[in-house]
Records
---
Amino acid sequence: MNDVAIIGVGLHPFGRFGAKSAIEMAADAIQLALADSGAQWKDIQFGIGGSYEVDNTDAVTRLVGLTGIPFTNVFNACATSASAIEQTADGIRSGKYDIGIAVGTDKHPRGAFTADPAMLGLPAWYAENGQFVTTQFFGMKISRYIRDHNISVETLAKVAAKNYRNGGLNEKAFRRKPISEDEILGAQMLNYPLTHYMFCAPDEGAAAVIMCRGDIAKRFTSNPVYLRSTAIRTRTYGAYEVHATWAAIDEDVSPTVYASRAAYEQAGIGPEDVNVMQLQDTDAGAEVIHMAENGFCADGDQEKLIAEGATEIGGSMPVNTDGGLIANGEPIGASGIRQVHELVLQLRGQAGDRQVPGKPKVGYAQVYGAPGTAAASILSL
């Protein structure tokens, strides 16, 4: 099986960009990834792309070059980009292709994610009572978690404040103004225990990553980063996740748990080997939960770790060094590749003011998408 190297990453800034289309942003991200990789568009043999708002991400070829490459559109909610990454890597590992690109883009209006539940075969009341990827669901989930594991609301504010600080160091983030813990706690309560500033925002942006066979990576770049694994898993019975038929909550059956275990097994490492991580933080509570679900601590240990600064850029387990979803917002299709973009910069030592000290060698990315699809990826030098 062929090793897969990441040779180039490109990130269009996240935020709001007026009349600029999602496809135009995707084209910019591709051009940035090409410049970063040393490859040219004519070298790319295939593409995988995804978006929530754009049905045919392949239309980006109209802007970057009609070379006739096969291009597959994918969608897996917040796990869309991770799915594109996995499919691109698998195409290379299989020996079918030598070099390909994964791209994600989206352009969301302001407000919560409240798409039509009918497209999922669900009754209208499911969205109306707040159980479709809106603030109510996330509030219910973390409310139970902090009660069961003795975690304070102040810890949620610390998570959000950390991500805003990190976003202030990221020139491509949507929210770049640090917000204090007191201001976060005092903000409008949306759904207890989550206040306004504890949530990410739907926004706009695009990201791209170019991958190739590991044995040819040095033709393009002197500092490749290797994609060691990507694993995607869906719900099992016993997990009440975003929108599905009712089942009792049990943290151990979260799809994130199974995706992370599979990713570690594929990569041949454990969570103790990871130096920098990107965890889905749709809200501050999600980051807390995902610390445990991905094996970085036990349930309930987050309170002490966060208080001690373990998840800060200079801490023992830096999380969301670019500000995560809370600072960057979430254009759904681009979110997972944005995580990989940050990890590649960190492993190369190119993250500037937010660079993790000590030359990190292993990075970890996790996303979670409705209706219960989780993905975990591991990168290393």
Note: The chain has one domain: 4-111+200-380.
---
Amino acid sequence: MSTKRERVNVIGAGVVGLTTGLVLQRNGYQVKIIAEHWPGDFNIYYTSPWAGAFIRPEPKLDERGKKFEEVSYKTLWSLSYMNDTGVIRIPNVDMYTYDLQINGEPWLKGIYHKFQVIPKDKLPKDVEYGISYVTVSMDVPKYLRWLLNQFTNAGGKTEKVHLNHLNDAFEPGVDIIVNCTGINARTLGGVDDDKVFPIRGQLVAVWAPHVKTAKTLSHEDNTRTYIIPREDGEVILGGTLDVNEIDGTPDPKTAESILNRCAKLCPELHQGKGLSSLQIIRHTVGLRPARKDGIRLEAEISRNSAGNNVIVCHNYGHGSSGYSKSWGSAIEVLELIKSASQAEISKL
């Protein structure tokens, strides 16, 4: 629980900002989330609504990354048993066309339910490594609304506003600012992080309620084909990794490539009737808020206009792992704020 510092302004209402705000509100802080875009809005720079949104183990994570992923996976797993969260449990087959060079040892063994390495002779041709496990998938609009409702039901406040500068979040009585601006951290005054960059991703949503298993095929050049079932019968097909591209218009040739790749990976997608039989719900393009050095998660002391010390904690740069590391990084923000608060108190 907070002691000296009780009021917090969180900037940003994407999955990271909402989760961080909820964690802090539940832990005794009085939180207000400040953002221009909210669940239900669709803007290319509001990146969370466009995500595929499921958790898969990332190979060769550092210890902090593993911790964030584990915390998020376990939290979302528990949410999958609750109504109205939009979170479901799904089996996943995860394959690689190259040798991960992990000596057969999974990087998060014992964390994922029913986790097993697939024997090489059971893998498709040209696939070098494969694992299977049960993971979680999120119906993005429903899950974001659930986060926001949980936050406000817990007493959290909201304000819809565009901020030009970090200092705009410094209000009288607010001692802590948490910066969860994602891709907008590149242009927000007072942050101006030139390490932040967009990775454009194109998806195709189809109606295929018979598909119950997620599948992913990763290549050494970091390209990836994936199939993600959602709660309501939609299946998300992807994807692309277009670094420093921001065009929000879906490309027909790219969509065709995605459909062909996904049909090859998952022939049951069209039930033997051909791609033309697929019911396409929509084509979407979103941006991943990536950062050159990975997630920026650190606390610093700044001064407000009254000359008082303010804790500023940064939590952005999640790239394609916003959903899969949201709970873990939010818990880290809580710990960073506690540590910074104690350091300030000790100076008194």
Note: Residues 86 and 348 are 46 Å apart (CA to CA).
---
Amino acid sequence: MTGQPDTPLPRDGGWAAYTDHARRLSALLKEERASAERQAAAGRDGQAAVDQLTHRVAAQRQHLHHLAATLRLPAPQFGRVAPGPIPDPAEALRRATTAANAADAAAENAHRRAAQPPLLPGFTPLARNALVYSVAATVGTFASLLMFALSPDKDLGRIPLHLVPWSLCGLPALAFFAGYLTISLVGQPRIGGGGTRSRKVGGVICFVGMPILWFIFIAATRG
């Protein structure tokens, strides 16, 4: 029976070259496999980072809509932005993360400013309200003194009795409501609550302080 001839074994030098190439091929295959695994891991990490950033941007959008509604501002518009020439996905992801961090910082700053009243935000509520009522009482006192100075009874050496109700009741009431309205409009935080109008303090300043100043003025001018 005639069979195929056996394959001749390579000589020692050929076998050594064969095994050397086989080892190199095996090492190359391992390196390619490791590189592919690294790329796959980087792709998974990148996709996870993109998903996380996408959820973060969606939460930011919802927060901005809520903040705009709370501050009674127009709803923000989110248009599409043309992608920039950034060929490296890692660099693009880094820039997107930086932009998201800046957006969070801006939203936090807006929230912090909205939690403070527009008028004298660095003052405590009591100090701010007392100052507002004091300014209103001072203006009312000057108006009362001006009315007294322009009254014809003053030239006759008499107290203008027709000005007494205004000086003791009318003008203090106007000063109180002017201060109260000012505090209500620009002296209250727009979000977060915690505002106060200090009505008792305003009442003391306007309805007690103004008449005292008026009596002191009358006593000084007649004494």
Note: The two ends are 153 Å apart (CA to CA).
